[in-house]
Amino acid sequence: MATEYPINLDYKKLKEFVLSQGVEFKYTGSSEGGRSLWHFPLDLQGKQNPMESFVNCRNANTCHTLENGRIYTCSIAPYIDDFNKYYGTDLKLLDMDGIDIHQEGMTGEYILKRLAAPMPFCRYCDVKHRTYDHPWELSKKDMKEWTL
Description:
Blueprint: E1 2-3, H1 11-20, E2 27-29, E3 36-39, H2 50-55, E4 65-67, E5 70-72, H3 80-87, E6 99-100, H4 108-115, E7 131-135
């Protein structure tokens, strides 16, 4: 599944190519007809309660991300290095934030249990100030798109 973002890309051709390679594929939505963006602000000080953030998060344990052999309970944490490099911040991603799926003795039961609990990175998510229904548009690369 993929999302169509409001960028200059021929999504129809892309889908045709992917299908021609024998890969099952569909878009979860279209950039046309009323799509909106969400604002999920980060607390750069990391002072949020991780359990409260996790319990009230729309992505927690529903938007898993596999990146470099590690699985995360959300899609923000594994890409925080890009945010840090671009904005000159230092939000910490700890080993306990992700699960090394190649670790010896790793079991599905262990992975599921860890994904169903907050990770230390949840301290950066200011869930109570999240807002929705913003115009579907390209990023202006302003840090305010990611913070309050």
